[in-house]
Amino acid sequence: MKKAILMLAMALISVSLMAQNRLSGTVRDAETGETLPGANIILEGSGTGSISDPSGRFEFRNINSGTYTVMVSFVGYQTLKRSVGIVGDTEADFQLEKAILSTEEIIVSATRAGTTTPTTFKTISKEELRKNNLGQDLPFLLNYTPSVVTHSDAGAGVGYTGLRIRGSDQTRINVTVNGIPMNDAESHGVFWVNMPDFASSVENIQIQRGVGTSTNGAATFGASINIQTDTKREEAYAEVDNSFGSFNTQRHTIKAGTGLLNDRWAVDARLSQITSDGYIDRAFSDLRSYFVSGGYYGDNHLFKVNIFSGTEQTYQAWNGVPENLLETNRTYNSYTYENETDNYQQDNYQFIYAGKLGQNWKANAALHYTYGRGYYEQFRPNDRLVRNYGFQPIVIGDQIIERTDIIRRRWLDNHFYGGVFSLNYVSDNGKLDAVIGGGANRYDGDHYGEVIWMRYAGPNDIRDRYYDNIAIKDDRNIYLKATYEAIDNFYVFADLQVRQIDYTFEGINNDLRDISGAQNYNFFNPKFGLSYEGGAGRTWYASYAVANREPVRRDFTDSPIIEVPRPENLQNIEAGIRTKHLNFQYGANLYYMKYNDQLILTGQLNDVGANIRENVDNSYRAGIELDGAVLLSPKWTLGGNIALSRNKIAEFTEFIDDYAAEVFQQETFTYTDTDIAFSPNVVGSAMIDFRPVKGLEISLLSKYVDSQYLDNTQNENRKLDAFFTNDLRFIYKLSPRFVKEMEFTLLINNIFNEMYEPNGYTFSYFNPTATGGRELVTENFYYPMAGTNFMAGVSLRF
């Protein structure tokens, strides 16, 4: 009995000792010694993994004694595998070598800025995106990056959302996914609502502010957003993410991947659903999406297919809230018809090759196809039959009906397809890095409208198209860019792009005008710059770049073809410094963006009463941007950014409708040196991260946006007030035995219940008065954001 008890006690002690085994260490850059936060550490064969914290530290607890192969990986570095014997408390540090460009990085490298590129940029990692990814659209995950202002029609960050960078709206921001253009060829916008939960399939994002480097698609006329989708994972995995929050917002995501099969093949997939009632009345969203990727990963060649799709139904909140209701009914929605919805599906197909061709050459080529189709439905009370639809009056007995209630659908059915390529050469001594690239894309779009119901039926059949027009747009570009190390650590950069656009359209527009016509453009976009790599991780840079941009669809359809506005021209100067060294990093830059012929709304009308945009000769944006982060201790990180700017139009003329005149007319007013609309002079963010115990991170995220005007008159009665919001985020990670990692997230948005509106619109007109005079009436409409609200999520990773 004594022996049995002794043996049992020894067994218990042995088990206890095994449970107390611990592996910890630090991941560093082998050359500089800088710690690498966010590195992935895997104990092969154990099913457990970890991620290095902001100080580069990692830890595994309760490990059985033995020898393990530890695999450490980090973006931009060579993956390291090493055998480590673990008995008791074991310390093992890992130093990673910078990687020669991997085949997957080649996919986006041609359109991205590198460490020596003389332009202003910021790269956001998967880990940074994941922290806030609880269901809100991608713009809101970028809210705390420099010079960014976000907005949401529904007021909760789900549905129709957008962002501005340096005051430039979504139509002036180039967006690519794996180097493939995503901007709509006609409006130049990106509709994030068609890409719900896309951030869950993103590896990293680079935002270039200003003109940036040459890319594919729409002109980079204020900034560019370059997205790389998920890269391969070495081991099989599965993830389940569920979020719940205010306004009945829910997000459900399932992801899985095979890891490398036979060291060559990998398949990854994601399925997502996001629903929300919205902050604004009836502004619900029902969003569904999937992402599937499969690839062959050879030693020097990669073949990859990405298929992703988004389907959305959103209740319209496009009209905004009238100014007189902001205090009493901030959630007001003028639409009440139950099916006043937007319905759209967008399918994307990408066929990608990337490879290394010998010692000096790398190549990337991709074919793509996007199919989009959908409509928005509207109830139109007492609508005009002849004027708005071209329908003859309805005769019932001796009654002639010229107006009636109508339900209509306006459709868009389009195809976008083409190819992009790049060929990269690096000299043997590494001093010359040159890329030739470009692309050719075609857009084929059909716009048409149907009346699906009339209170009084006429001779028109259901689905009869009361307008129908098609557009074909060919967009071709080729660029040559090179960086040359002229002397030690001093680099010269040049980037030359030629872009050609052929745009034809024909048919009847929704205002019943024939808009048939064609336009052709040829643009030359040169860029030059210098950079110098100093000590302690510093890079100094300066550049000059030119961008040219064609008008958008509405500029053609709303204006007679003989009066189409001129293309816009931007000349951009950037100069700054960026530093990453040990436990801190910072950046500072000056910019000047000079516009010629910038297109703006002035109030002028076309022959059927629609607003048209006009060129203004001279306008500019100038400012300074500062951003940085410092690891104060293993428990505290402080970061932030601020942008100070002036955004001016030298002179423009405003047109105001005069309904007090005997015959309708427009009166003009000329303004000089006024602020550009939606361009705040100050935008800043601050982030404080606190890690009191292992696995727990508490963050305070603050955002300040200065006042901004709704139009270009700098009228104090037509503006958005400044706002200062604060969000509080809790993240807790643990590794129970039944999963690799479990993560709980609580995000409390707008903790001080700030009432603010980041977006809106305005219009003015003269009305007659009782005394025979006239009065100026200005109507402002706003898109309010929600007060205090929350999102909570749980993630399981296997």
Q: What is the averaged pLDDT score?
A: 91
β-strand number: 45
Give the terminus-to-terminus CA distance.
Answer: 44 Å
Q: What's the number of structural domains?
A: 3
CATH superfamily of the largest domain: TonB-dependent receptor, beta-barrel domain
Architecture of the largest domain, according to CATH? Beta Barrel
CATH class of the largest domain: Mainly Beta
Structural class: mainly beta
Helix content, binned percent: under 10%
Q: State the CATH topology of the largest domain.
A: Maltoporin, Chain A
Total number of helices:
6
Assembly type of the shown chains?
Answer: single chain
Q: Strand content of the residues, in percent?
A: over 45%
Shape: globular
Which regions contain 5 or more consecutive residues with pLDDT less than 50? 5-19
- Main beta-sheet annotation: 22 strands, antiparallel, barrel
Instruction: Using the CA coordinates, give the radius of gyration.
Output: 29 Å
Domain TonB-dependent receptor-like beta-barrel: 311-751
Protein name: TonB-dependent receptor
Pfam family, one: TonB_dep_Rec_b-barrel
GO molecular function: siderophore uptake transmembrane transporter activity
